[in-house]
């Protein structure tokens, strides 16, 4: 069933005959599985007219009429809730500034009533909620659903986030590091439909990453896989929160960049000074791009992605300067791989992690449809 769902997702519209061709399953099996999925309200039939002769064909696609998924992003400065349908269409978003809130109790004062309202609205419209996906600063203990000790996120140490949310809202709940949810947004709803190997890099207050290899999110032994911001860029450089020295984050994040410039304290000011040709600002930007280039070449050689997606609050400030970085990268990559260099901006901008949180639940539906739907029925 999982294989059939994945093919339907990949093609968006596909006929039963094509499903037989692509999966190698018998037409009898495809008939039974698709019948079951239609009954469950996960997929639906619709008629498409194909070719010049106007032949009508019955196609299959995801059904957006029965289920909704909620994505929640709990960030250091904002929180966002999105509601999506099974086609990945965002049907509602709510965003709040959280910059003067500290710790779980303070956050839940805002999140609680909003999430209750969203849940009530979805249910009163007759939809079933498949689950709640959550993006939150890592690292975390996935088995226990507990945060460990997220840097710059006071009050959340050892917080049992998943069980608290399950108790509060009674929904199937999945939690994930926010850089990985951002990667999942591309994997399931964005640019990842055509690729199985991508790295998402989010640059802002910190630098994080999410690695999708062979279609699967990779976490590693300690959940640290893809922590690209903590690769060493400056030998014996500045001390980092992680315990290492000279991490990319210490020089390439927004605070890292501004710490190398004495002329102001915002990226807007830095960019204005760069445009005005102020020498110290130019040097700071040049070094920033050089660190970025080094970070990216390491990412390419370590993970061999088909696609690198750049997002986060820093990205818009660097977007205009990326062409030379890409050109340099091409000259530094293995010759046979250099034409495959593909670096693009994220699809969902500031909503990336919340959309990706919803994508976690969608991924669960595709890999274990029977289990998730059984949980949903309660
Ligand atoms: Zn570090």
Automatic annotation (TrEMBL):
Keywords: Carbohydrate metabolism, Xylose metabolism. InterPro entries: ATPase_NBD, ROK, ROK_cs, WH-like_DNA-bd_sf, WH_DNA-bd_sf. The keyword ATP-binding does not apply. GO terms for biological process: D-xylose metabolic process. The keyword Membrane does not apply. It comes from the Bacteria. Gene3D superfamilies: 3.30.420.40, Winged helix-like DNA-binding domain superfamily/Winged helix DNA-binding domain (1.10.10.10). Belongs to the ROK (NagC/XylR) family. Transcriptional repressor of xylose-utilizing enzymes. This is ROK family transcriptional regulator. It comes from Paenibacillus ginsengarvi.
């Amino acid at each position: 069933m999982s294989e059939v769902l994945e093919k339907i997702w990949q093609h968006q519209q596909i006929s039963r005959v094509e499903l037989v061709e692509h999966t190698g399953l018998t037409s009898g099996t495809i008939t039974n599985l698709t019948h079951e999925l239609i009954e469950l309200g996960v997929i639906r039939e619709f008629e498409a007219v194909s070719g010049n002769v106007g032949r009508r064909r019955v196609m299959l696609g995801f059904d957006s009429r029965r289920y909704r998924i909620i994505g929640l992003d709990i960030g250091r400065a904002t929180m966002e809730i999105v509601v999506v349908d099974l086609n990945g269409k965002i049907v509602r978003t709510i965003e709040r500034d959280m910059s003067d809130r500290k710790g779980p109790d303070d956050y839940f004062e805002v999140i609680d009533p909003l999430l209750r309202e969203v849940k009530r609205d979805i249910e009163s419209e007759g939809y079933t909620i498949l689950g709640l996906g959550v993006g939150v600063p890592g690292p975390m203990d996935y088995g226990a659903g507990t945060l460990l000790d997220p840097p710059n996120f006071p009050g959340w140490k050892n917080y049992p986030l998943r069980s608290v949310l399950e108790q509060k809202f009674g929904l199937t709940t999945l939690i994930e590091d926010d850089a990985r949810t951002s990667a999942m947004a591309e994997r399931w709803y964005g640019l990842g439909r055509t690729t199985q190997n991508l790295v998402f890099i989010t640059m802002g207050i910190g630098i994080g990453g999410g690695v999708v290899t062979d279609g699967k999110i990779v976490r590693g032994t300690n959940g640290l896989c893809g922590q690209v911001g903590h690769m060493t860029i400056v030998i014996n450089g500045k001390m980092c929160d992680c315990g290492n020295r000279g991490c990319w984050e210490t020089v390439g994040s927004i605070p890292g960049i501004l710490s190398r410039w004495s002329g102001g304290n915002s990226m807007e000011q830095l960019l204005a000074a760069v445009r005005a040709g102020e020498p110290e600002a130019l040097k700071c930007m040049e070094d920033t791009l050089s660190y970025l280039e080094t970070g990216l070449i390491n990412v390419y050689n370590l993970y061999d992605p088909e696609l690198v997606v750049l997002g986060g609050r820093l990205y818009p400030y660097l977007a205009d300067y990326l062409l030379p970085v890409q050109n340099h990268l091409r000259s530094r990559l293995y010759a046979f791989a250099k034409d495959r260099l593909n670096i693009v901006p994220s699809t969902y901008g500031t909503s990336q992690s919340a959309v990706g949180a919803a994508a976690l639940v969608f991924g669960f539906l595709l890999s274990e449809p029977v289990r998730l739907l059984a949980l949903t029925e309660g």
